[in-house]
Specification:
This protein is of the alpha+beta class. It is 36% helix and 15% strand.
Length: 89
């Protein structure tokens, strides 16, 4: 679809995926990092929690960021989850 849109003259697109399409959009952009994709919308997709154990320094930084009100610093890497932060409700 990105190639098709480009053929119509569009320089960038926003990919929108619903249900199983959300997984397809996520996988496509994750694997290709296509510069023609300006944005990604995932609607009602499959939710699979990340069960990997995060490095201790990430947990420490996340805990510190939450306690000091710097939530924007939390948006990093695949391990972002309140479940990974000891003592956080």
């Amino acid at each position: 679809m990105v190639d098709f849109a480009e053929g119509l003259g569009f320089k960038q697109v926003v990919l929108v995926g619903h249900s199983a399409g959300a997984n397809a959009v996520r996988e496509y952009q994750g694997a290709n990092t296509d510069p023609r994709v300006a944005g990604v919308v995932l609607a009602s997709g499959d939710v699979r929690p990340d069960t990997r154990v995060p490095p201790a320094e990430w947990v420490s930084k996340q805990s510190s960021s939450l306690l000091t009100g710097n939530q924007k610093e939390l948006v990093q890497g695949p391990f972002l989850s309140a479940a990974n932060i000891p003592g956080y409700p």
